[in-house]
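README, section 4: Worked example with a bound small molecule

Sections 1 through 3 covered apo chains. Here we extend the same pipeline to holo records, where the ligand is supplied as SMILES alongside the sequence. The molecule in this example is zinc ion. Nothing else about the input changes; the structure line simply encodes the ligand pose together with the chain.
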Amino acid sequence: MASAITTGKDVLSYCTKCKLNLSHTIVAMKDEKSIAKVVCNTCKSTHAYKDPSLSNASKTRTKTRSTTKSTGNTKVISISDLWMEQLNKTTSKSQPYTIDCKYNQGDVIDHSKFGPGIVQSVKEGTMEVVFRHEIKTLVHNRA
Ligand SMILES: [Zn+2]
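The generated complex, written as structure tokens:
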């Protein structure tokens, strides 16, 4: 501890009259480490010591954090998550994709370009397939 706080020394305190953090002179001590009363060097009024860091900063500090964190918790399901989940769930064996074959919902196909994919829905002649990075509409059952 370099400089002990004692009466007669200057400290920064929040002044209740000036409504500012200003230099004050200590007039009374509560104990060795805590200041009881101070005199404002600006307006010369005597009042209880108020920690300058508590008076101002507390208002601005608190909020901001909680909002940014909650967005991280809301789960966004990406295509690759969906793809992974579907692949894990399925019991179908993957079959090579050809345009002529007919596929059913839940089938796993092995596409030469896009890799493994899971058939999401089947329409007349087309089907929606989830691949690792994208959902594609593919032609099938052309024969
Ligand atoms: Zn003052």
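What to look for in the output: The helical segments are 52-55, 57-61, 65-73, 79-89. The pocket of zinc ion is lined by residues 15, 17-18, 22, 40, 42-43, 45 (CB under 6 Å).

Section 5 describes how to batch many such records.
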